[in-house]
Design a protein that fits this description.
The complex is a heterodimer of chains A (582) and B (158). Chain A contains 18 helices and 17 strands. Chain A is of the alpha/beta class. Chain A folds into 3 domains: 3-77, Roll (Ubiquitin-like (UB roll)), CATH 3.10.20.740; 91-208, Alpha-Beta Plaits (2-Layer Sandwich), CATH 3.30.70.20; 213-570, Rossmann fold. In chain A, helix 8 (269-289) packs across helix 10 (325-340) and helix 8 (269-289) crosses helix 14 (424-438). Chain A starts with a strand and ends in a 12-residue tail after the last helix. By secondary structure, chain B is an alpha+beta fold. Chain B has 2 domains: 11-66, no CATH class; 78-156, Glutaredoxin (3-Layer(aba) Sandwich). Chain B has helices at residues 11-20, 26-38, 43-53, 57-66, 86-90, 93-104, 149-156, and strands spanning 78-83, 110-111, 117-122, 134-136, 139-141. In chain B, helix 1 runs antiparallel to helix 2. Chain B is elongated and about 50 Å long. Chain B starts with 10 loop residues before the first helix and ends with a helix. Classes of the chains: A alpha/beta (582), B alpha+beta (158). The complex binds iron/sulfur cluster (3 copies) and FE2/S2 (inorganic) cluster (2 copies).
Chain lengths: 582, 158
């Protein structure tokens, strides 16, 4: 690897060639203020806060977009730079509503922190705030363009990482705003509700819809049994909101916190992840054995499902009809569990804590989401919303004693927990499908072929002499590559290139979902991924079909995977949707 | 007004797209041609162009809204342009716009439901001595106050 020798404020430093000044400085714990740069994205150099000096040159450079040059001495901080940066901040603030108290990003806003650090006390420029109404049309996120600082992150995320193109900068000069094309609302645009824009926006211009009050109202309603489930990815991220390292496993504390918040029963989406594997794995084996349509494609990510229905609906016959774990958990709570506690679906209020904003959309996406006769899932709260509720309730999260989930739909296997990471659904499915196909157990449960962070991963798993070809994509922009291979093979009348494809909309999978704690980058992703693999390793059972509560639910209630009852409750269908609904 | 009228790609436009399809800078050229054909850029045509060129609609709108030249609304039969140049701005150009928005019940850059009037704000038109100024179909009206506006509008009302 080629290295270059530079100096930072006179101190020699060696960094990789091609590193930006901003990142080079970080390797030496020097933080240059930056508002538009983000590790996930190419530098757009929009905000101007990161200006630095190059010794011997009269020009100032933007540290985020300038690569280090051998031998140069960069001045990252001095009183003059401080003054320039203060001015830049004051100018940004003169176009920014001063509404911190009621803002979705209060306490976590990057602009607020900078204003605090720089001690801005007044704004010496005329205030000029855009007069645009907030777009609350989607069930998932709110777009408030008045607060936009034109950093460009959301547009880059939506266009480059997600390939959705819901957002673009419209107009120019001081009228520039971020919006969907053609005067439509976000919900009428191609937006797939992944919330990645909200996770990357440095300010409160895009944020998740806060629905915590609905939870509080349900808990106060004596006639309701409030049943909460938590998704795999939440347990390795929530701790961050309480100062813990990313990846810290806090499952037992979350169960405890939910009970303190008033939940009557606490379950785990991981149980239904195991259930999903039983259904989806059986569906796959059925397709393989009976000459069904291959490859089968996963459907548990609602943002991906929405994308497919809009942009790739030729793939509908390939989609697994199995519902997502969250939806399965909802319907099992309102049927199987309701029976057990002698109550009715309408008297149970189901809540899911999810890393994801698209899940807020999923619960009403079509009429199959009412399989119990009632709305199967009543409410979805993101990890960020749960963190706020815990804080508002004055709970000391750190002090909580770990508790267990409730029975009979709360136990999970290691296969269920890795649903939260890219490749995890595939790995879990392989562990069970192997058994279904060969009647033997897979020896090495760690399916290395599908692990890792490459945007597309392809592999072959040996099912006792039969090669099962699999592919994994994450980050919506990576999916077309695989779909095109499938399309090409189809057009040429060739064998399908894969048996099974897993897709998750978010880079890294749900551990980096749009509803997770802020400041996610690849380092944080790796820590959260490690947290889930660790949870898998230390699980007593690591295969979905070994989960005793799974065996029981089939024996007592569902019959067998793909049974008539399973089809009615646990499976769904897909439809073509226009890219622009207006 | 959201245009509900259906628009079809004209033969001239189709031929133009074919010719420019693979050339650099084609989007702007094609959008120019589109405006020439229809007098503005109908949304249905923008969607169709996106398909033909394999360009997301968001990108097309990024371009259309960046250049003031492009119009998103079908121009009204009578086009009112209020000057927002410095002189006119200082002498109350903005009040004229507000009053016209009231009178016509539309916002800037839009067209009345009956297609009779469209309203836009323009840069200095070179009659600063008469500020504040507006034009209707190119005809200049100067030294206006908001009280004069009903009469101006009435002159063009059928
Ligand atoms: S939620 Fe996802 S698809 Fe929708 S605007 Fe944001 S990044 Fe784009
Ligand atoms: S909405 Fe947020 S992420 Fe998007 S450009 Fe504005 S400030 Fe940046
Ligand atoms: S990858 Fe996970 S977090 Fe992201 S949209 Fe899909 S389900 Fe939601
Ligand atoms: S961080 Fe470099 S210009 Fe914004
Ligand atoms: S400023 Fe209005 S005509 Fe010049």
């Amino acid at each position: 690897m080629e290295m270059v020798n530079i100096k930072l404020n006179g101190k020699p430093l060696q960094v990789k060639a091609g590193t930006s000044i901003l990142k080079a400085a970080l390797t030496d714990e020097i933080k240059i203020p930056a508002l538009c740069a983000h590790d996930d994205l190419d530098a757009w150099a929009a905000c101007g806060l990161c200006v630095c000096k190059v010794e011997g040159s009269p020009k100032m450079v933007r540290a985020c977009a300038t690569e280090v040059v051998e031998g140069q001495n960069y001045i990252t901080h001095d009183p003059e730079l401080q003054e320039i940066r203060t001015t830049v901040l004051e100018m940004i603030l003169s176009n920014h509503p001063q509404e911190c108290l009621t803002c979705g990003r209060s306490n976590t806003c990057e602009l607020q922190s900078l204003a605090g650090d720089f001690g801005i006390r007044e704004i010496p420029y005329e205030m000029d705030i855009k007069d645009i109404e907030a777009d609350k049309s989607t069930p998932s996120i709110v777009l408030d363009p008045r607060k936009c600082v034109s950093c460009g992150r959301c547009a880059l995320v939506c266009q480059q990482l997600q390939n959705v193109w819901a957002l673009e900068f419209l107009e120019r000069g001081h009228k520039t705003r971020i919006a969907p094309a053609g005067g439509v609302l976000l919900n009428e645009s191609p937006c797939i509700k992944c919330g990645q824009c909200s996770a990357h926006c440095p300010v409160g211009a895009i944020y998740e819809k806060d629905e915590t009050r609905k939870f509080l109202a349900a808990v106060r309603d004596e006639s309701k049994h409030v049943s909460v489930q938590i998704a795999p990815a939440v347990r390795v991220a929530l701790g961050e909101a309480f100062g813990m390292e990313p990846g810290t496993l806090v499952t037992g504390k979350i169960y405890a916190a939910l009970r303190k918040l008033g939940a009557d029963s606490v379950f785990d989406t991981n149980f239904s992840a195991d259930l999903t594997i039983m259904e989806e794995g059986s569906e796959l084996v059925h397709r393989i054995k009976n000459g069904g349509i291959l490859p089968q494609i996963t459907s548990c990510c609602p943002a991906w499902t929405d994308y497919m229905e809009k942009y790739a609906n030729d793939m509908i016959p390939h989609f697994s009809t199995a519902k997502s774990p969250m939806m399965m958990q909802g319907v099992m709570t309102k049927t199987y569990y309701a029976d057990q506690i002698g109550t009715k679906a309408k008297d149970i209020y189901t809540v899911a804590i999810m890393p994801c904003t698209a899940k807020k959309y999923e619960i009403t996406r079509d009429d199959n989401m009412w399989a119990s006769g009632e709305q199967d899932m009543d409410l979805v709260l993101t990890t960020r919303e749960l963190a706020r509720m815990i804080k508002a309730a004055g709970i000391c999260f750190d002090c909580l004693e770990e508790e267990d989930a409730d029975s009979p739909i709360g136990a999970y296997s290691g296969a269920g927990t890795i649903f939260g990471v890219t490749g995890g659904v595939m790995e879990a499915a392989v562990r069970t499908a192997y058994k279904l196909v060969t009647d033997n157990e897979l020896e090495d449960l760690n399916v290395h072929a599908v692990r890792g962070m490459a945007g597309v991963r392809k592999g072959v798993v040996d099912f006792a002499g039969t090669d099962i070809k699999v592919a994994v994509a994450h980050g919506m922009a990576h999916v077309e590559e695989i779909l095109n291979e499938v399309r090409e093979a189809k057009a040429k009348g060739e064998e399908p290139p894969y048996h099974f494809i897993e897709v998750m909309a978010c880079r890294g999978g749900c551990i980096a979902g749009g509803g997770q704690p802020y400041n996610t980058n690849d380092t944080v992703r790796a820590q959260r991924v490690a947290g889930l693999y660790n949870d898998d390793e230390k699980s007593v059972t690591r295969r979905s079909h070994d989960n005793p509560e799974i065996a029981k639910i089939y024996k007592d209630f569902l019959g067998a995977p793909m049974s008539h009852k399973s089809h009615e409750l646990l499976h769904t269908k897909y439809q073509e949707r226009p890219i622009y609904s207006k | 007004m959201q245009t509900t009228e259906e628009y079809k790609i004209t033969d001239a436009l189709a031929a133009f797209v074919e010719e420019w399809k693979d050339k650099p800078g084609n989007l702007i050229m094609i959008l120019h041609k589109t405006q020439e054909e229809y007098g503005f850029i109908p949304r249905t045509i923008a969607i169709e162009l996106g398909r033909m060129l394999d360009v997301p609609l968001a990108k097309i709108y990024g371009v259309i809204t960046f250049y003031h030249f492009f119009k998103l609304e079908k121009p009204g039969k009578n086009q009112i342009a209020v000057c927002m140049g410095t002189a006119c701005y200082l002498k109350g150009g903005e009040d004229l716009i507000k009053e016209l928005e009231n009178l016509l019940s539309i916002g800037v850059n839009s067209t009345t439901e009956d297609g009779q009037f469209s309203l836009e704000a323009v840069r200095c038109i070179g009659c600063c001595g008469l500020a504040p100024v507006l034009t209707v179909n190119g005809e200049v009206y100067g030294k206006l106050s908001t009280d004069d506006l009903p009469a101006v509008v009435a002159k063009y009302t059928e």
